[in-house]
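Re: beginner question about structure tokens

> Can someone show what the tokenized structure looks like for a real chain? I only ever see the sequence side.

Sure, here's an example I had lying around. Input first:
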Amino acid sequence: MSDLLDTAEAARYLGGTSPISASTLAHWRVAGIGPAFVRVGRAIRYRCSDLDLWLAAQTRAPESAHSTDHTPQEAASGSDKEAQ
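And the corresponding structure tokens:
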């Protein structure tokens, strides 16, 4: 099997059990925010290795439970509704 996936296959690969739509992946490609791709003639293809690298780059550390209680502005200003 080829290492190159078409847009629909790449979208399923990225989404796992909750696949993203092929149109979302195409939008990300046009906006320059999606994974690297290969143009083969008129066809767009994605390497599994590029998809894996892009997924790894999207990994974010979870925020602490304390910081999720406030918007960033509230946290910065020290505003706390529970203290009232």
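Each token stands for a local structural state, so reading them left to right follows the chain. The longest helix spans residues 22-31.
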